[in-house]
Amino acid sequence: MDAEPRKISRSKNVLKARWNRRAYFIRRKIKRSQFLIYKRLMKLTLFLLLLAASLATIGQNQAKNLPSDAAAEQAVIASGDIVDCANLSGSEATAQLLDKIPGTILTLGDSVYPDGSGTNFSDCYARTWGRHRARTRPAVGNHEYHTPGAAGYFNYFGEAAGEPGRGYYSFNLGAWHVIALNSQCSDVGGCQKGSPEEQWLRSDLQQNSSKCILAYWHSPRFSSGDEHGNDPSMKPFWEDLYAAGADIVLNGHDHDYERFAPQDSDGAADPEKGIREFVVGTGGKNQRGFHKALPTTEARSNKTFGVLKLSLHPGSYAWEFIPVPGQTHLNCYRQARGVEIEMGIWRIP
Ligand SMILES: [Fe+2]
Ligand SMILES: [Zn+2]
Question: Which ligand is nearest to the CA of 183?
Fold first, then answer.
């Protein structure tokens, strides 16, 4: 009678042991699969950490290659027809504007009157605009050539004026390529197609065609000033600049301020590919009159001395004519808060 229950309890024990063993294997399987999951999670975490680290490094390297904010915007301040040795008051007033505006100064020729002798540079120019010589990139005018070879000019400005005796050179400002030209054609072998200066300009433009381009020199291709007006001998420079997609031309010579709509080398308005010219002969010498405005004249004034400030960005520029204090009476300009101002922004198409 006893044998049966014992048999049953033995088989119960066997079943229990089997179950325990199975449970053990199941637990082991779970543990192993948990371990595998952990292992995979660890691998994934490590991979994500490495990915984040490498992306950060790439980002840093790219940031190094991008121009900084400072390089992205470049300030340029320009004017020509500046220092009169017989009366420094005009150029002293415009020099006081420069004192407050940081940036590269471009002189647009006729830096000192009555002529560009060494003495006039050291005794007159040096007393007003000369205090900003270290940040000035000059262009040469006709009054500098009253001294043979413009020797006073080249001696005074040194390396900042490019190769001595040539009067044309170029440099970069952020995303912009800036070209100084010499409009005293007869002193440098002519300005016609194939002349040394025109050949130099074409090859300089070929090497820098990807950039925004600003060119500056003394005698304007276009001007409604009654003393000089249009200078057709500048047309070859305009053709080369237009073909290269240049954006801005700055000139002096006529003692006034004039802004043109973008136009081609024949003076036809061309908002897509045209070049915008500014005449800024307002450095401090004196003012002169106007003829009838040209079809592309957008604004002009002969009421005040002042400087043109340009903010050059990659792909756009802003301009502002800054008159000397107390002389805000400009004609043809729009009004803001009762003061007539001349400023604008142009996005390069
Ligand atoms: Fe002048
Ligand atoms: Zn001149």
Answer: 2
What per-residue confidence (pLDDT) applies to 34? 74
pLDDT at residue 21, rounded to an integer:
75
Q: What average pLDDT does the segment 191-216 reach? A: 96
H/E segment holding residue 241: helix 235-243
Q: How far is the CA of 325 from the centre of ligand 2 (A)?
A: 25
Which ligand is in closest contact with the Cα of 81? 1
The tens digit of pLDDT for each residue in 240-272 reads 999 999 999 999 999 999 999 999 999 999 999
CATH code for residues 69-347: 3.60.21.10
Ligand 2 mean position to 255 CA, how many Å?
A: 8
**Ligand nearest 282 Cα, by number?**
1
Q: Return the SS3 of 32.
A: helix
Rounded Cα distance between 180 and 201, Å, is 10
Enumerate the domain spans of the chain. 1-66, 69-347
Mean pLDDT score of the chain? 88
Question: DSSP secondary structure string, 133-198?
Answer: GGGEEEE--TTGGGSGGGHHHHHHHGGGGSSTTT--EEEEETTEEEEE----GGGTT-SSTTSHHH
pLDDT band at 61; cut points 50, 70, 90? very low
Sign of CA pseudo-dihedral 311, 312, 317, 322: positive
Task: For ligand 1, an ion, list residues with CB under 5 A.
Answer: 81, 110
Q: How many angstroms does the Cα of residue 146 sit away from the middle of ligand 1?
A: 12
Ligand 1 centroid, distance to 308 Cα (angstroms): 16
- This prediction has a pTM of 0.79
The label of the residue with tokens 């002009």 reads: 300
**pLDDT band at residue 41 under the 50/70/90 scheme:** confident
Question: What ligand is nearest to the CA atom of residue 84?
Answer: 1
Ligand number nearest to the C-alpha of 228: 2
How far apart are the CA of 36 and the centre of ligand 2, in A?
85
pLDDT > 50? residue 330 = yes
Among all ligands shown, which has an atom nearest to the Cα of 142? 2
